[in-house]
Amino acid sequence: MWRLSSKGASGFSSSSTAEEVTQGIDGSGLTAIVTGASSGIGTETVRVLALRGVHVVMAVRNMAACREVKKAIVKEIPNAKVQAMELDLSSLASVRKFASEFKSSGLPLNILINNAGIMATPFMLSKDNIELQFATNHIGHFLLTNLLLETMGKTARESSKEGRIVNVSSRRHQFSYPEGIRFDRINDQSGYNRFSAYGQSKLANVLHTNELARRLKEDGVDITANSVHPGAITTNLFRNISFFSETNEQNLNFFLKKHHSQLQSHRFSGKMLTETILSIFKYEFINILLPEGNGAATTCYVALHPHVKGLTGSYFADSNVAQASSQAVNTELAQKLWDFSSDLIYRCSQNS
Description:
46% helix; Short-chain dehydrogenase TIC 32
């Protein structure tokens, strides 16, 4: 059973697909980088961009999987321009290597889609000793974007076409730690919550986007930056989640509060209560999952659609401008995160 959806101002909704929101758009002459392109919405994003004539560079960690994806796309779209380059966003050295190799290729860059991400992992540190979700979802993309800005700016000037940066966030950005970003405790294992840590990294995506948009506008650079919520998608992003043992207290309290009256109206044995909670929980978090074609829609809309031209520092959901959380639009927090991220990368480079 799917949630009913109504069209927003853009004319699209959560039921719109990536092909639908880009129908009739000619992307030939454009070059895009899509991170995390070997699975899920990353793959669908690449396929639809290629379908519209965009030359797509698939920035991936798993090159073997990417070769299979590329093969499938070219089989469906014989004239597709797609290529693969290795990128591990949890490694600052890998990010620098990728950026260097891309710039050496001489390719222009019109669109950067920071799509890759991991979700709800147990506590781990990256190769640079940064909490893994924060390192992969935010820091890696933060560095990658900064290293490619010069190329994007040059492309925008020479082509007279607006450059676009799309950061894939999540509505989960609303459920970070209470303080938003734990600047002084990024690597604190004792207070680690895998879902809050994911929310923190997604909040960082929106804050990064907003501060980047402000700086680009201030510098008069013809590049926009926007963040998107793709929806709850049926991808392997959920591979670290078990609906029993890993459901955290925050999620459970939210769930129980929402369905309190429904549960109160019945008398349950322990087993019946568990089964009832699970059935509702599965409806809430599984049956509403969207196919990948829908999940990639907002990303593709923001990357290609002419209606988005000139719009920057916005947050999108269901292919429409949406409202981000109060923390996500906090300009002081965004500036603090920018400085913190820059300093963290510098300190890591000094230690490597």
